Amino acid sequence: MFSVKTIVAILAFGAASVAAAPAPAPEPVASPAAVGLLAVQSAVRMCKDSEWRGDCKTVLVDLGVCTNISGDYNDKISSIENQSSGNTKCTWYIDGNCNGSSYSNQKDAKLQDGNGKFNDSISSFSCTTK
Length: 130
Ligand SMILES: *[C@@H]1O[C@H](CO)[C@@H](O)[C@H](O)[C@H]1NC(C)=O
Ligand SMILES: *[C@@H]1O[C@H](CO)[C@@H](O)[C@H](O)[C@H]1NC(C)=O
Ligand SMILES: *[C@@H]1O[C@H](CO)[C@@H](O)[C@H](O)[C@H]1NC(C)=O
Ligand SMILES: *[C@@H]1O[C@H](CO)[C@@H](O)[C@H](O)[C@H]1NC(C)=O
Prior knowledge:
Shape: globular
CATH superfamily of the domain at 41-129: Crystallins
Helix content: 10-25%
Bound molecules: 2-acetamido-2-deoxy-beta-D-glucopyranose
Order of helices and strands: HHEEEEEEEE
CATH class of the domain at 41-129: Mainly Beta
CATH topology of the domain at 41-129: Gamma-B Crystallin, domain 1
Number of strands: 8
Structural class: alpha+beta
Largest sheet: 4 strands, antiparallel
Number of helices: 2
CATH architecture of the domain at 41-129: Sandwich
Radius of gyration: 18 Å
């Protein structure tokens, strides 16, 4: 599973490699460009049963891009969450192509609650910066 910490570690490693090259002026480890990269993706966890039970998977998506839920999870998700910390917001849609009714609770352990409209019916989602 990807996490923000993993991304930070990868970025820090990349910056360290650059700094290790025989360059006269070493770059700071946390350059503004590296910090900016933290906001380009979001991690979304989805499970076929409520309360994060049953089959689950986590997908890392680019921000601002609509992602269709792939075959075996399409119309089968009963719990879902945006796992990115703080700076992203995801919207879940009933139809493919981010079309149709939408919903944006960032963490819902039981989509069946309330009107239940989004239980076993999410087909696509997109995430953006908040
Ligand atoms: C909705 O979610 C519950 C709990 O995970 C599940 O038992 C139920 O079969 C789901 N589907 C529908 C169509 O209600
Ligand atoms: C995305 O999810 C994380 C973890 O549940 C949460 O801390 C964060 O606030 C969420 N983002 C928004 C915009 O709610
Ligand atoms: C997403 O699903 C819709 C149908 O719901 C389809 O028309 C569209 O081509 C799909 N997009 C991608 C990128 O697969
Ligand atoms: C979105 O849904 C509307 C209404 O059902 C439909 O007319 C339109 O073609 C859909 N657009 C896409 C991109 O799927």
